[in-house]
Specification:
single chain, alpha+beta, D-amino Acid Aminotransferase, Chain A, domain 2, 2 domains, 6-stranded antiparallel sheet, 3-stranded mixed sheet, 5 helices, globular
Length: 200
């Protein structure tokens, strides 16, 4: 029987099937929180310090006080990877506002919730990586930069989800979003790069 991944929640580790948070957590109720998606290759976490710095910068913009120091967070990430015996992995680091009530007021949330997930992820097949994928420019536009702070990696990914649904329904592998002025912005979960004259 395959061993369940262990998930870090507020300093404790739980098997995936038992890893739960309160339905009153404002990350669940309102998308009030921040995250980082980090990769590990051959046991080395790619740019871990930079990801941790960005997580804390995102939290600062939201006036969300993470209850761990950066060093403690780095150690928690590495320990989660070790406990799951993973060399190559996707790590999802999440900090929510924490448990509150049904109102929006963040002051009702006494303590942020910290979650670390380390698991395998496979977005595309080897063939897709070698031959390419079919992409659709979708109707969903990226949020304008003057509506929400774009330096924050927040838990609100609704327009990405809608873009992915549109691509799925149309039979495409992935979606590309435009900005409000019709310029290419990014994929629903990816950055875009251009190769021109043999240069990236």
């Amino acid at each position: 029987m395959e061993r369940e991944p262990l998930v870090y929640i507020d300093g404790e580790y739980y098997p995936k099937s038992q890893a739960k948070i309160s339905v009153f957590d404002h990350g669940f109720l309102y998308g009030d929180g921040v995250f980082e998606g980090i990769r590990a290759y051959k046991g080395v976490v790619f740019k871990l310090k930079e990801h941790i710095d960005r997580l804390y910068n995102s939290a600062k913009v939201l006036m969300l006080n993470i209850p761990l120091t950066k060093e403690e967070m780095i150690n928690a990430v590495l320990e989660t990877l070790r406990k799951n015996k993973l060399q190559d992995a996707y790590i999802r680091l999440i900090v929510t506002r924490g448990v509150g009530d049904l109102g929006l007021d963040p002051r009702k949330c006494q303590k942020p919730t910290v979650i670390i997930i380390a698991d395998n992820i496979k977005l595309y097949s080897r063939e897709a990586k070698e031959k390419g994928i079919r992409v659709l420019i979708v109707w969903v536009r990226r949020n304008p930069v003057d509506t929400t702070p774009h330096q924050v990696k927040s838990l609100n990914y609704l327009n990405s989800v809608l873009g992915k649904i549109e691509a799925n329904i149309a039979g495409f592998d992935e979606a590309i979003c435009l900005d409000k002025d019709g310029y290419v912005s990014e994929g629903v979960g990816e950055n875009l790069f251009i190769v021109k004259d043999g240069k990236l």
